[in-house]
């Protein structure tokens, strides 16, 4: 049963958008649940109850840190009285819907905290301006919607994000390396490159995994990733994850960790078009 965390500091918008999320949950008829939070601190406190007494990179828990409205099941309305949201240990969230501009901890700050804690569920950002879109790349947001958000656009974004979450739970590529066999989550793969007769995968965690010697071409070795809409071949020996690409020039791609991926001349136009369309489709 998918679980969604919704964070919005404006009471009116929290009620309006919360009602749409409630409707979406009912229409899915699969037990989808939604928790509402009035601030970034409230969400972080519910997820990490020990954060108040531990270092938290500047994120503080407010007096209403545990406040949330819980949907008992996909066919019921929100509970009349607020209650503490189920902590991630018991009911991990599959999707976060976050307002960008909030006092204290912004939606971007919250996203960075989630990623730092190893929570990589898709994030859909809501905001009144597109000026924070570039910052949302830091947390690899699944979507970025500008308010007022139309119901069709919101529902489409939620469908894409939950579909992505489902793939994360079941998908993965198996890589044979000297240490044994590793299963890699495509979401965390920034890029893959040919190194000698092996493929090196650079991950968002900073780790690099090198395969054993391959007996096929690079394209054949990364075929599964190349068929994923998030990935694109940049040349004969490089493949990049569009979710982690922050800029494209005529000669290379810049990744979210600052790494440059060479771009072949004959692929430049197609890669730039794919990258722009990838983000435009997620920001509609």
UniProtKB/TrEMBL annotation:
GO terms for molecular function: phosphorelay response regulator activity; transcription cis-regulatory region binding. InterPro entries: CheY-like_superfamily, LytTR_DNA-bd_dom, Sig_transdc_resp-reg_receiver, WalR-like. Gene3D superfamilies: 3.40.50.2300, LytTr DNA-binding domain. GO terms for biological process: regulation of DNA-templated transcription. The modification 4-aspartylphosphate is found at residue 99. Residues 3-162 form the Response regulatory domain. Pfam families: LytTR, Response_reg. PROSITE patterns: RESPONSE_REGULATORY. It comes from the Bacteria. GO terms for cellular component: cytosol; protein-DNA complex. Keywords: DNA-binding, Phosphoprotein, Transcription, Transcription regulation, Two-component regulatory system. This is Response regulator transcription factor.
């Amino acid at each position: 049963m998918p679980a969604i965390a919704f964070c919005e500091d404006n009471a009116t918008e929290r009620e309006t958008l919360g009602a749409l999320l409630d409707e979406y949950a009912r229409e899915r008829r699969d037990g989808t649940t939604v928790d509402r939070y009035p601030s970034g601190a409230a969400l972080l406190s519910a997820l990490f109850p020990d954060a108040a007494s531990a270092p938290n990179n500047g994120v503080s828990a407010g007096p209403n840190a545990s406040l949330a409205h819980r949907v008992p099941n996909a066919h019921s309305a929100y509970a009349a009285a607020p209650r503490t949201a189920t902590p991630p240990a018991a009911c991990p969230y599959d999707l976060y819907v976050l307002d960008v501009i909030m006092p204290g901890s912004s939606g971007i700050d919250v996203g960075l905290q989630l990623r730092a804690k190893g929570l990589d569920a898709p994030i859909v950002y809501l905001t009144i301006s597109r000026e924070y879109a570039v910052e949302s790349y830091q947390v690899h947001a699944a979507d970025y919607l500008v308010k007022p958000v139309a119901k069709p656009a919101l529902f489409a974004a939620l469908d894409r994000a939950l579909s992505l979450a489902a793939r994360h739970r079941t998908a993965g590529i198996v890589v044979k390396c000297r240490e044994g066999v590793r299963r890699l989550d495509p979401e965390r793969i920034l890029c893959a490159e040919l190194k000698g007769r092996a493929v090196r995968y650079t991950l968002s965690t900073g780790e690099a995994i090198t395969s054993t010697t391959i007996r096929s071409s690079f394209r054949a070795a990364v075929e599964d990733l190349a068929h994923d809409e998030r990935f694109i071949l940049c040349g004969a020996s490089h493949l990049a994850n569009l979710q982690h690409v922050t800029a494209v020039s005529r000669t290379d791609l810049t990744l979210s960790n600052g790494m440059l991926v060479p771009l072949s001349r004959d692929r430049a136009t197609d890669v730039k078009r794919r990258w722009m369309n990838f983000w435009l489709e997620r920001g509609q």
